[in-house]
Amino acid sequence: MERPRAYRLSVFPHSLDAKEDGGNPTTIFLDADNLSSGQMQALTKEGGHECGFVLRGRAGVENPSNFTMRYWVPNHEMEMCGHATVGAVWIMDQLGLLPPDGRILISTKSGEVEARVDREGGSGSETRVFVSQPAGAVEDLPDNRVLETLSSLGITPDELAPGYKIQNGCTSRMKTLIPLKNHNILDRLRLDPDAVLEVCEKIHSTGLYPYAVINAEDQVVEARQFPKSAGYAEDPATGIAAAALAFGLLRNGMLPIQTTRPLFVRQGWFMGKPSEIHVLFRLRQGNVEGCWISGKVKWMRSDKHNDE
């Protein structure tokens, strides 16, 4: 198998400090049109984390896309992956491969997403990529599934944040949003991976996303992500889950509908990979029509300019 160009990145690190091992790793493969699904999965298993594969865009349609992306974790293909999309747009910007008019439309199995690049930071390492998500759908978890869901994480209803309910939220994939009283409870969760898989199947979720509000005024929350069946137990930064969480908090009244400030979602601290995802609502005529997810990107340690 002839390998396409590969770039290993860390997406959503809390800091660009080279000494801090933050962010969610991803490998982005460019010019991946000739890879089969089996080859994509094999490359992903080799890397052990989410991978994004960039293919030609869709032509000959009403809204032709610039690129097509496919996403894999070691165990299966995903419809959408936020951090791999951010990473792919970032590396293509670094290489001068983005369209000159700044319009970036990407086809995915969950639908088309937009992206934009903010270069106001100056250097390439400070470039910010924003990727769109549609308006989220949120519903309360049925009461008969609450205890089982909490048990899979080793907690009880007494440890839930007062006034908040467990919710299933979705922009691209369903995530289960579990509000906790404080980040100390978040840190001492006792995960049962088999139980997480079982309960996720029952509640039609792709992962559990317990979170704690750290600073309501500054819109800062901390979260952990436990995927249903990705091939690893925990994820250090999950853009799609953070987007779902923003709409859950909007429904709960924590985020005002007219806010022009981002929600800051911190993740990965427990894993030693401090990460931060920014979620900003997209407003039109006073209504929320979706959101942008964004954050920092950096080369993985010792992998700068790697393009084997």
Structure description:
This protein has two domains: 5-133, Diaminopimelate Epimerase, Chain A, domain 1; 137-294, Diaminopimelate Epimerase, Chain A, domain 1 (Roll), CATH 3.10.310. The chain contains six helices and 18 strands. The protein is 19% helix and 35% strand. Strand 12 and strand 13 (220-223) form a beta hairpin. It is α+β, with helices and mostly antiparallel strands and 308 residues long. It has an 18-stranded mixed β-sheet that branches. The active site is at residue 50. GO terms for molecular function: isomerase activity. Pfam families: PhzC-PhzF. Keywords: Isomerase.
Distance between the termini: 13 Å
Helicity range: 10-25%
CATH architecture of the largest domain: Roll
Order of helices and strands: EEHEEEHEEEEHEEHHEEEHEEEE
Main beta sheet strand tally, sense and closure: 18 strands, mixed
Beta content comes to 25-35%
CATH class of the largest domain: Alpha Beta
Number of strands: 18
> Within the CATH hierarchy, at the fold level, what is the topology of the largest domain?
Diaminopimelate Epimerase, Chain A, domain 1
CATH superfamily of the largest domain: Diaminopimelate Epimerase, Chain A, domain 1
- Are there runs of 5+ residues with pLDDT below 50, and where? none
Mean pLDDT: 91
Rg result = 19 Å
Shape: globular
Pfam families: PhzC-PhzF (PF02567)
Keywords: Isomerase
Active site: 50
InterPro entries: Phenazine_PhzF-like (IPR003719)
